[in-house]
Protein: Peptidase A1 domain-containing protein
Organism: Phialocephala subalpina
Amino acid sequence: MNTYMFPISSLFILLQLFDAATSTVRLPLQASHQNFHESTQKRGVQSPLRDDGSRDAFNHLTLPLKEGGQYLVLAPISIGTPPQNFTTIVSLIRPQLFVISSLNPAKSLENRTHYNSSLSSTYIELGTDGYNDFPVAQAEGRFSKDNISLADLTVARQTFLEATYIRSGEETRYSEYEGILGLGFGDNTVTEIFEQGLIEQNIFSLQVPREENGVGVLVIGGVPEIEEDITWVEMTNKTNDMDERYRELKQWGVDISSISFGPPSLNISLPKREDTTPAWIETELMWISLPGSLVQQIHEHIGANRLGWSEFMAVDCEGRDWYPDLSFRVGKEEVEVNVTAWDYIWPIDMGDSGDMLCLSLLIDGPPDDVFLGMGFLRGWGVSFDGVGERIGCEYFVRVIEDIC
């Protein structure tokens, strides 16, 4: 089966054209681990979102996340003794971890932090070559072991990839990341922390930044201080057939029995199927991808217009106040999950002109899968249980109120 390609490259060409025409479109970029901390502090983010992480009432570690430009989510980690600090892209696709190696000769990476094994007293050489394949970057190098730290949690002797060669996609070209923190289902860093007895539950919770300059949170060892309100559903047993690179993986996803837009009177919904549709949750995808003709019907209802020659649909920014919700029925319990227009519409600040361009994050996708990217995650706090193989969610506003 061929890999289904989402429209990414054209978006960056589009944004570059806006930049050339107005000199005002500037999406935030993450330059270094130090800048991550500085920018967090400058925005006045205080405890419990300190740059070194903190503990909530349940003794869960809360780590700050930052929007890294072009919808990517960044988290700070450290490797080695003494610690070497890195800014990493958070991924829910694969459980592996890689950082740039000091043996990587690429000049395009020379201003980023590189892992130097000779500076770490806890480094263990494995002597095997490896390859990590993520949607936004592919890395080749050598597998090694060292201590990995997320704030005050340190997992000893975790295997990771020292990347001596990285092929970045369009979506990471302008985001100066220094590695990828893979939190996909399986033996990820949180699982390693759990197995070493450092946390009581193999659960992590994610709330991505909702705005370009916002801050999100990664809670390790449980869910935020709203445990009684989390609604859990079982992971899907289906496989992701859209991309042959990940077909063998068990991924974070749920089963969806129905999709609808607005009240029943609109008659905009996915036709009832004999079987459920798998929905995959991804941080490396900005879109909400829906099957069938559903997206076309939604765009016609909200008056979306194609933006020039691109695949993208522009909408009235003020319409976010009254456009209908996109609703999913999730899991065997058919839990209702609603995505508001403030989440499935992406505003782009045009800078000094004061203008705002709003794009729909809804796109036509493959016929048998749903993909819930940043257009979904911007509105929901999501928890991932690696032992119970279940996923929980809580609406964004409640999560942020209770954490912050």
Q: What stands out?
A: The mean pLDDT is 80. The first helix runs from residue 9 to 22.
